[in-house]
Design a protein that fits this description.
Number of helices: 9
Helix content: 40-55%
CATH architecture: 3-Layer(aba) Sandwich
Shape: globular
Strand order of the largest sheet: 5-4-3-6-7-9-8
CATH topology: Rossmann fold
Structural class: alpha/beta
Largest sheet: 7 strands, mixed
Strand content: 15-25%
Radius of gyration: 18 Å
Number of domains: 1
CATH superfamily: Vaccinia Virus protein VP39
Bound molecules: S-adenosylmethionine
Length: 280
Amino acid sequence: MNHRFELLITVVLFSTRYIFGLSSGSISRGRLIAPETTESQRQGVTKILDLVYGDENSDEWEARRSQARASGEEDQTLNVPQHELVYGELGLDALATILDAVGVEQGDRFMDIGSGDGMLVSAASMLYSDFLESSMGVEIVPDLYERSLKFQNRLENVLQQIDEDEENPSDGKVELCRSMSLDLGNVYEPNERTKHLFSKTTLGVCFATTWSRNEPGRKLPKLSSALGNSGSCELPAGSKLVIIDGVLDHENDGFDFVGQFNLFVPDTAPFSIARLYTKL
Ligand SMILES: C[S@@+](CC[C@H](N)C(=O)[O-])C[C@H]1O[C@@H](n2cnc3c(N)ncnc32)[C@H](O)[C@@H]1O
């Protein structure tokens, strides 16, 4: 990683935790907050993700990503602008940086809004297995949704295989959180199940870099009103929402804007902006 950005992230992380008044292992609203992920924890989860989704420098990785891009580009049947379907990935390091900054609380229900191949749902589940009640994803493109199910299945097989091979399970054993779900759904036109999932979400993330690409000021009024007060996928009061490369109409839609920081994401180099909101 570019050291300038590594430093930037470090500085910003401190200030973000300061904004929330959090520190590792602290308590918020009576709930325990997960300690920040360690380097060895991230490495352990990366090894598993590599087995499931391909190693970042491999041909398998490239092929998987170009197939994912093609899935979004080829689907002309969905009632959303085509640029919102352009595929990109946040990646494990950026996700961990964000969730460590926000502070995962015991019992949080994580949701990746537009979950693509499902990598963030898998990564969150493993990184915060002791803290998350559930790790969920909703994806609009049927082909991507089908692919995410296939990868989730592969993940379960990989973990089971490791379990069987490991004679003396070590403390660093990687596990999944209590429940994981991947759903086909549209945040703008949700079915009952999708609405229900959003009503249970306490910690949402949306990598909206492609959704906001053509929007002035990266504003996302449609997403903002869908997730906000009386929206089609209204989030519960007190839930935390991180939008990467997008801006909500927070005053109109019932969010409190908490803060923002720059972070390194390979797909959007030199950097993306993560904005933190809480639902009032
Ligand atoms: C930039 S990709 C992010 C993929 C994944 N979250 C990640 O970071 O690895 C955005 C995803 O949102 C999906 N998407 C776009 N509009 C959506 C909508 N209205 N409802 C649900 N998903 C949507 C796209 O198909 C795409 O897979």
